[in-house]
Amino acid sequence: MNFIDLRSDTVTNPTDKMREAMFKAEVGDDVYGDDPTMKALEEYAAKICDKEAALFVPSGTFGNQLALFTHCNRGNEVLLGEDCHILMHEVGASSVIAGVQLRTIKSHKGEMDSKEIELKIREENIHFPETGLICMENAHSNGRVLSLENMSKIYNIAKEHNIPVHLDGARLFNAAAYLNVESKEITKYCDSVMFCVSKGLCAPIGSLLVGNKDFINKARKKRKLMGGGLRQCGILAAAGIIALKDMTKRVKEDNENAKLLGKELSKIPGIKVNLEDIHINMVFFNIDETGYDKLKFVEELYKKGIKINAEEDGFIRFVTHYWISKKHILYIIESIKEILSK
Ligand SMILES: *Cc1c(COP(=O)(O)O)cnc(C)c1O
């Protein structure tokens, strides 16, 4: 059975064009610097972020944690949003790998107040850790996009205090599509950025960590330390290049499809959708007022060929992507109406 899979955009299989490019990719041992396809991907990734260099990593988590590990010394303090992915969904890695302390900033739907950040930057004092890094997340995993104004305020304060800024841009291109700007308009407010090619861009594996040459050279060595020195990875880079050249142009469709899905869901009695929070390809809603059993909801949709995740923190999340069309959305809506009417 061909499922309609709304669990995440990480479920996207590579396209036929990617598979063909992977099959034909020219490769070499990338730890020796011999893989021309990987070099091409890294150069292109740096270029579209308007930075000097880039490094392929196995996953988004790997890229974020490598950024912390490279920017910071052990015992440094990292300032980041209380609801960000690095804190909430990366298995506590920052305490294991970089050995840093995370200090949270209040999140206003994903945006941090630059004044609060300034207050939390450490002075020199024998009792204090040093503030080693500030992290932002855009698009945010709550489905919203930070404004460029918010990013620029935070970046300027960081620069005044000589602190580097890392951007978790797992869905950077969805954010760029929402803001209707090129990705470099977002990445100019950070010193390093991680983005995923393995999510809505359909590549099977990988993320890129991007920054200046010195930072990427250090990160390359630490990537090896973490076991992420890959050999003939041009096979993966071939798909990544198509992800960045072709697929970034179409993620706005996913954003639009999420809006449509949200709008149609909101018309179903008892379903509550935060329509104004649908900036990218994610729809959060709850079905409390329908009175329908939540586990049964997952099971019934499964029977209709639709895979969804169980509720988390009071919300069900649907994610649109390359393999979800408008036709699928109408079928999803019809299926939900049918399930709830029983
Ligand atoms: C998915 C995601 C990551 C991590 O990516 P993985 O490849 O799943 O490790 C990091 N940050 C954000 C905001 C994400 O959505």
TrEMBL record:
One GO biological process term: glycine biosynthetic process
Ranges in a coiled coil: none
Enzyme class label: lyase
Cofactors, names only: pyridoxal 5'-phosphate
Aromatic amino acid beta-eliminating lyase/threonine aldolase domain residues: 5-286
Classification via Pfam families: Beta_elim_lyase
Keywords: Lyase, Pyridoxal phosphate
UniProt keyword Lyase, yes or no: yes
UniProt xrefs under InterPro entries: ArAA_b-elim_lyase/Thr_aldolase (IPR001597), Low_specificity_L-TA-like (IPR023603), PyrdxlP-dep_Trfase (IPR015424), PyrdxlP-dep_Trfase_major (IPR015421), PyrdxlP-dep_Trfase_small (IPR015422)
Protein name per its UniProtKB record: L-allo-threonine aldolase
Family: Belongs to the threonine aldolase family.
Keyword Phosphoprotein set for record: no
Modified positions (N6-(pyridoxal phosphate)lysine) in chain numbering: K199
Superkingdom, natural source: Bacteria
Organism, scientific name: Clostridium acetireducens DSM 10703
GO cellular component, one term: cytosol
Assigned EC number: 4.1.2.49
Single Gene Ontology MF annotation: L-allo-threonine aldolase activity
